[in-house]
Model the fold of this input.
Amino acid sequence: MSETQVAQKSTTLFGKKERRLLTDPFNDNNPITVQVLGICSALAVTVAVKNALVMAVAVTLVTGFSNLIISLLRNTIPNRVRMIVQLVVIASLVSIVEMVLHAFQYDVYKQMSVYIGLIITNCILMGRLEAFAMANKPWQSLLDGIGNGVGYGAILIAVAFFRELFGKGSVFGFRVLPDWYVPNGLMLIPAAAIFLIGIIIWIQRSRNTKLVDIS
Amino acid sequence: MDRNSNIYTIIYAAILTVVVAVVLAFVHSSLEPKMEANEKLAKQKDILRSVGLVDLPDASAVYEKTISSFVIDASGKVVDGMDGEAVNVAAEFKKPAEDQVHPVFVYTADDGSKRLILPLYGNGLWDKIWGYIALEEDMNTIAGIAMDHKGETPGLGAEIKDNPKQYNDPFIGKTILDEQGNYVSVKMVKGGIKEPEHQIDAISGATITSDGVNEMLYRGLGYYLPYFNAAKSQTSLK
Done:
């Protein structure tokens, strides 16, 4: 499903291959809608656009840097403990993100509570490290990490936009729907997110038929 | 060097652990003052919210100017030399009742009138809930309440914070003692209010959160009854 090898010869920083690393996760290889990873957090933090945005940025930073670090270390990591090494790197980065949020975005930190820590268990991270960073150069790995983080974040923000719009009548905390609209509480519970993700997957597959048989 | 040898693996793991520990310790110690300041400000805002002061641009300054605090022990006696802010309410909650200490925050309005602000702590449906309740000087009439929660359901239990108009403001003016002076606390009830002096409407669809609020209020205010009684008998002697 995902290309695990990229031509090692490419000389330019943004050749065709590198661009594909960034853009593939948006469509053909989206972590949520195609790989179906990271669903748990996609249900939990998409009540408001702001939370989804912070989560997207946090995950993008962690995927990008963990891919970069593991790729730099890939030729030194003892094979028998490679997963433990990967987890240590991920856990450290997540802890740093958590502390930074605690210090600079306290409200968001409080609302997201455990879900920041749970980035550690987000399958996208281990998935990209095992499938990509262990076998590719640092620059390509960084791009792959950022691409996947942003691809994940894009779905998160799309889901959060509709949940906040219909669930609270607002976007980014500002009321946008007229006063006669009664907010739909159903949109605020996690089940609504699974419906929305389902609809997104449906739309994506009806437009991009080559995905239909893959999974 | 052989990357699959035991020695290499052990040394590698040891170095990695040390490097990660140093990095994390450095980040934590450099951000710690900021994190603590955030916690403190959030607490100050909650306390001010209970007396109706919301969305203040300079909450910290208002707090310093209007709030003082002291601490009482389980028998209602004032503990000397202790600051209310130093008490960790969540930790006291877990101690045996006779070992607990309870902070009292005193709000002094511009006109000199005072209100007692008491912390509350309990369990909602999913996780802990907490808040502050403000009483008038008669130590009976509720002047305001502010509640917060860790993980109550949005639109249901979370309304204790998100919908103050419906679930905080009605507490104002209710009394915690009945006409004979017995402690009855205040309650959120379903199916119609029978004692308008002590009850408000519960949140429909959030029975367990409402029950949690009732328990939190009953127990939380109960801690202070010995102090109230002592304070009242003192003033009546004068």
User: Anything to note?
Assistant: The beta strands of chain B are 67-73, 78-79, 101-108, 114-123, 128-135, 142-149, 187-189, 199-201. The interface with chain A takes residues 3-4, 8-9, 12-13, 16-17, 20, 23-24, 27-28, 31, 34-35, 38-39, 41-42, 150-151, 153-156 of chain B (CB under 8 Å). The longest helix of chain B spans residues 6-50. The mean pLDDT of chain B is 86.
